[in-house]
Amino acid sequence: MFENLSYLILQQYWWAVVSLLGAILVFMLFVQGGQTLIYKLGKTDIQRKVIVNALGRKWDLTFTTLVTFGGAAFASFPLFYSTSFGGAYWVWMLILFAFVFQAVSYEYRTKPNNFLGEKTYEIFLFINGLFGTILLGTAVATFFTGSDFFINNLKNSIWQSPFLGLELAFDFKNYNTFINLSLGFTVFFLSRVLASLYIMNSVDDISILNRAEKVLLVNAIPFLVFFIFFVVNIFIIDGFAYDPATGIVSMEEHKYLRNFVEMPLVGIMFVMGILAVLFGIIRGYFFSTICGSKAIWFAGSGTILTVFSLLLSVGLNNTCFYPSSYDLQSSLTIENASSSEYTLTAMSYVSLLVPFVIAYIWYAWSSLNKNKITVEEMENDSHAY
Amino acid sequence: MENFDMALVDWSRAQFGLTAMYHWIFVPLTLGLSFIIAIMMSIYVRTGDELWKKITKFWMTLFGINFAIGVATGIILEFEFGTNWSNYSWFVGDIFGAPLAIEGILAFFLESTFIAILFFGWGRVSKKFHLVSAWLVAIGSNLSALWILVANAWMQNPVGMTFNPDTARNEMTNFWDVLLSPTAVNKFLHTITSAYVLSAIFVIGISAWFILKKRRIIFAKRSMLIGAVFGLLSTLFMLMTGDESARQVFRDQPMKFAAMEGLYDGEANAPLVVIGFMQKKPTSENPKNADFAFKLEIPNLLSYMAALDPNAFVPGIHDLIRGNEEYGIISYYEKINMGKIAITALSNYKEAKENGDKALASIELQKFRDNYKYFGYGYYNDPYNMVPNVPLTFYAFHTMVGIGVLFLLVFIFVIYFLFKKDIVRARWLNYIALWSIPLAYIASQAGWMVAEFGRQPWVVQDLMPTLSAVSNIDHKSVIITFVIFAITFTTLLIAEIKIMLTQIVKHSKIEED
């Protein structure tokens, strides 16, 4: 079946798979967003316990999505993996540290004799929510703005900045840093928006819900501001394009805006995604008591559509998905960074199982979330976090 | 070697070793305990006996504490392939990446989805669905181990690929060869059975402590029974696969095999060293030389272990370095030479291709192909730099085997006393079971050390030395991350142990069986 596809179509297929995983990951970051809101949403110990447990049932899924995203990126575009991870060393290391701490915090937070104390684990959760989201967003923004690296003819990559990736977030002399950070903050505030909608969906406690409503508005506004800043900027700047015949990379005016026009389906998904997120926010805020609990599904699917189309736009239509501003010709495209045709074909068969995986995740999710979490339940649950 | 930043190589190795060994403290328990819990829960669902439910829940509590830190230490490893071994990531990404991606899609989601059901499903989902979830967690976690071990086995014995000089990497040509290579199958089976043994020891050890404290005796005896039977069967499989593994190493990694036994000069009818102490004996050729100060041997056994023939010739380190015509062994000197030809030919090929000189390109390509088998050797000048740390490999190997065999006896005794005698009175046996817990962790780490130190200097056997696999970053950054990892993981380990011990004590004091 997949053997009959051309190499290019396989590369596009795998870019789409990686993009979809990235998009689902951004949606699932509501767990991280929620971790920064534990004290905003819960004013008593038991309320905080409700929130931590609502998030705690999903943290593993977010974590797994991140790991699978990394694995899929490695398998399908190994040159991206080696260049970005081995170059922007510190950005990725900081992201990873943020996630290392998260993994133990749910389980250890309220266990007796936990060495570091409950507060410390809550700080770990907060750090994960704050830096995990901002740094991930910042790293992804460089797909549009570019980084400084060089790749030699043995495909060894050499990062140019001695700050090994930190310059992408802290070099304020470079305007691109602001674009990068704007996506970082977009993801951060979006994750908090989604978290408040998720809490509305899964918790049954009126005082928490009232607070979630406020939190939703307070975060939706900066989210929109940063998002608009990012989108306007990438639509204005020149993008990194390559000639499919020769592979030669050049700068093209408004490349990222053009991609949405030249790939109308992707453009439509992008607009629909944004509208769905806005609709979710409005529904969650103004109609929280009537139908707010379903708002997460609009905002969530909207997030997935928007991120998916953004990532598609930067990888398809002869665009360099991981550009080098230091040496244009070192820029990575889905054609020059991918695995061999054989490997992509073999993995494509495995990818056929993805719908099945999504189906059982869905089934498991809904069987656990059938009943909303309440304060009473937390008081009587011996296995609660 | 002089062209490489050895501080960077060493610190990158130190960091990867540190994080991998920390991860490996927690993984074996997850692999085995998940099955033990599934078995216990099956008995509960079948019998409806509330005590079995309590037993299941207790081991689940310990499982959860261990699982969290296993996850925390695991994420780092996946990304370290990119952050610290970026040249490696490209050189083998086409093969190595695929199992990693499949692992994510097939195994991690299975594990993480159903673990939520396992922990929060009591009263929320049906008993049957809950039980199915328990089994799926066990299968998912063991499947996770499968794919990463397939990748590791490929590094020890690369198969199913060809080197593409245009992309400068190895490309997969046969997925099934990679997945079903005997090295991969055996490595998987040996690793998971060793993990089951560790888990079984963990279960009988803690149960023994309950018995020693005279608390929850029935609870402890039932746990012990499951642990001991599971452990005995696993030990038998572990010893069988370990035996097979020795022959594979002998065939594919003879230098590692020689180091495992501290064998410098090869011989037919080679004896197996049962116990030995090594000391440094520098020679003019090899300043790092170490040999036995004392050893106790069993005649012929090593030859038998290696080739199922007591008369077989087992090459020593010197035979491999200097070559041995009688037994058709090519010397390291020759291999280094061939490796250098391959490296030069690859570079000439690339240059000729850029200049459009097709004739020269095809000559160089042929030269490259003829010598690619020993490509990695070309990075070295002195073959003694290609000998792994002999004492470390020797001690690790003997520790692993010794403790593994000891456990066979422990399980047999425990089962015998459970059925035929009164285990409560056999305090000595309970003490042995308890003290076996640290031994199991030592053996488990030792096994990993044999596999990974023993194969040095290779990251991919014969093709890619560790020193050419690192990322092009400055070693100071790696030192900083190493220190952060060391502090972080040690802190988390302390927390884990404290929490676990507290839970064990707490549960031992419940009086309701």
How would you characterize this protein structure?
The complex is a heterodimer of chains A (385) and B (513). Chain A is mainly alpha-helical and 385 residues long. Helices cover 70% and strands 4% of the residues of chain A. Chain A is built from 18 helices and 4 strands. In chain A, strands 1-2 form a two-stranded antiparallel ribbon. In chain A, strands 3-4 form a two-stranded antiparallel ribbon. In chain A, strand 3 and strand 4 form a beta hairpin. In chain A, helix 1 packs across helix 16. The longest helix of chain A has 31 residues. Chain A is globular. The N and C termini of chain A lie far apart (46 Å). Among the domains of chain B are: 181 residues, no CATH class; 49 residues, no CATH class. Chain B has 15 helices and 8 strands. In chain B, a hairpin with a 4-residue loop joins strand 1 and strand 2. The radius of gyration of chain B is 25 Å and the shape is globular. Chain B starts with 5 loop residues before the first helix and ends in a 5-residue tail after the last helix. The mean pLDDT of chain B is 92.
Instruction: Compute the average pLDDT of chain A.
Output: 92
Q: Give the termini distance of chain B in whole angstroms.
A: 65 Å
Uncertain runs of chain B are: none
What structural class do the secondary elements of chain B suggest?
Answer: mainly alpha
Name the strands of the widest sheet of chain B in spatial order: 1-2
- How many domain units of chain A? 1
Q: What is the helix tally of chain B?
A: 15
Give the biggest sheet of chain A. Answer: 2 strands, antiparallel
Strand content of chain A: under 5%
| % residues in beta strands of chain B | 5-15%
Largest interface, with counts of residues having CB < 8 Å to the other chain, equals:
A-B, 75 and 83 residues
Quaternary organisation: heterodimer
Rounded radius of gyration of chain A (Å): 21 Å
Structure class of chain A: mainly alpha
Shape, principal axes of CA atoms of chain B: globular
